[in-house]
Amino acid sequence: MQNEKMSGILITLAGAICWGISGCFGQYLFQETEIYAEWLVAVRLLLAGTLLVSLGFVQQKREIVQIFRNADDRKRLVIFSLFGVLACQYTYFAAIQYSNAGTATVLQSLSCVLILGVLCFREKRAPKRYESVAIACALIGTVLLSTHGDFSSMSLSTRALLFGLGSAVGAVLYNFLAGDMVNRYGIYVVVGFAMLISGVMMWVIVRPWQVELAWNGKMILAILGVVIVGTAVAFSLYLKGVSMVGPLLASLLATIEPVVAIVVSFMFLGSNFHAMDFVGFVLILGTVIGLSLKQRQNEKSAR
Predict the structure, then answer these.
(1) DSSP class of 213
(2) 220 vs 29: CA distance, rounded Å
(3) What does the DSSP 8-state code read for residue 1?
(4) Residue 80 contacts residue 182 (beta carbons within 8 Å)
(5) Low-confidence residues of the chain: pLDDT under 70
(6) Cβ–Cβ contacts within 10 Å for residue 272, how many?
(7) E strands, the chain, in order
(8) 3-class DSSP state of 13
(9) Global model pTM greater than 0.85
(10) How far apart are CA 49 and CA 232, in angstroms?
């Protein structure tokens, strides 16, 4: 049993690491090629959606089309595709384009604070003391990240900050709009078809085939990294890990994703960070870990 749990922890960490690395692949493409966020999102969603739906077909065969036989679920899937998946993906990669993978991933992790706000609103209550502290730490961390500690200037561009915060909102919508569809149909089916639908829409709008690019081996490998490593491999590993260690521990382990993105973008992509940036990172990531641990403790007490 202990060996199985340790295997689950390692598998979950591997999935989260793949997500962190995939953001760095995106940063490389924005820095070294003519590729821009809209192009990459269009290609990633279409190809990744095809991959996930294929994995869903392997698991469920013809049952994967069950989701389209229910009128309400069809509507919810389209809404989830556009306002959940597309919003989350586009704002995240746009934030990377205007800053770097580490900063964008940390800003996106603020979604846990926004989710806390939504839950407080739903339950018609004020935040508890530890929740208020978490919110304050997250806000201070964001300010430090935006200013490098120099409050007379904004070091993070307005676009980078807005897209980064937008990706946090997108992550919240991503979590809430899927509802119970994932439990009923499976994540490969729901997320796969959502990516496919939003990918087709972006493909028509962006028309990536009309963009002239100087193709080379590194570019192709980076695109495959975003699509395969950041989607099929990451989802498969993470979901397997969740089945072995449970969603609460898995969500805590997933906080390694922004750490990986920070380290990789700093070591290999030349991203510059200041001392106050790391203080901001610690405050935001500490908030995420603290809330995850408290949630786990509360659920254990409720049993």
Answers:
(1) -
(2) 10
(3) -
(4) no
(5) 1-2, 151-154, 247-248, 295-303
(6) 8
(7) none
(8) helix
(9) yes
(10) 9
Confidence at residue 246, expressed as pLDDT on a 0 to 100 scale: 74
Instruction: Give the Cα separation of 285 and 213 in Å (integer).
Output: 37
Give the Cα separation of 150 and 162 in Å (integer): 19
Cα–Cα dist 226/98, whole Å: 17
Nearest CA to 19 out of 227, 161, 175 is that of 227
Residue-level length of the chain: 303
Tokens of 95: 């934030």
- Locus of tokens 């990789």: 264
DSSP state at residue 68: G
pLDDT of residue 78: 95
The rounded distance, in Å, linking the Cα atoms of 97 and 116 is 28
Helix (H) or strand (E) holding 271, with range, is none
CA–CA separation, 259 and 256 (whole Å) = 5
* Contact status, residue 144 vs residue 277, Cβ threshold 8 Å: yes
Q: Which residue type does 127 have?
A: P
Pull the structure tokens for residue 283: 């405050």
The token duo for 205 is 């709008």
pLDDT for 299: 56
Query: Which DSSP category does 148 fall into?
Result: T
Written as six digits, the tokens of 48 are 């990744």
**DSSP labels, 83-123:** IIIIHHHHHHHHHHHHS-HHHHHHHHTTHHHHHHHHHHHHT
Structure tokens at 35: 């590729």
pLDDT of residue 247: 66
Rounded to 5 degrees, what are φ and ψ at 149? 90, -5
The radius of gyration of the chain from alpha carbons, rounded to an integer in Å, stands at 19
